[in-house]
Amino acid sequence: QSFATRSIDLLYQKFECRRNSLVGTLPGIRSIELSVADNLLTGTLPTEVFHSEVLEISAQNNQLEGLIPSQLQSATKLQKLWLFANRFSGVIPWARLAQTPIKSLVLASNNFQGEVSPLIYTIPTLQWLDLSDNNFTGGLPVAVAGTNLQ
What we know:
By secondary structure, this protein is mostly beta strands. It contains one helix and twelve strands; from the N terminus they run ββββββββαββββ. The chain has one helix spanning about 95, and strands at about 10-15, 25, 30-35, 40-45, 55-60, 65, 80, 85-90, 105, 110-115, 130, 135. A six-stranded parallel beta sheet has the order 1-3-5-7-9-11, with no helix packed on it. The longest helix has 4 residues, at about 95. The termini are far apart.
């Protein structure tokens, strides 16, 4: 069964469709809590998932690729972004992430590159960060006092 590729004009409180064998591209679902983890989804992450009301996006363990969309800056309430075990690439938009109240950021096992920005230490809400198994270069930025990272 394949997802349709059009946008959905509803705002769901919670859209959960984890641990299936869904294939195809992810439609532009607008949900406050979006979970499509553990499927076989391909293509890019639709820009529509990053809207002003979204709190959580869990799309780990798929075959999604491309960049994190610039619309991330619209997700002004985003607290959880789990995109691990996909094929995302490019540079992580650290400045845009720093403008969100993100608590849990798990981007492990992708193809992200560039340097890890010291901006990660300026996000006072960030508690969980996993960037392992990517293609980062340079050194780790020095932590500043008062970080909540685990």
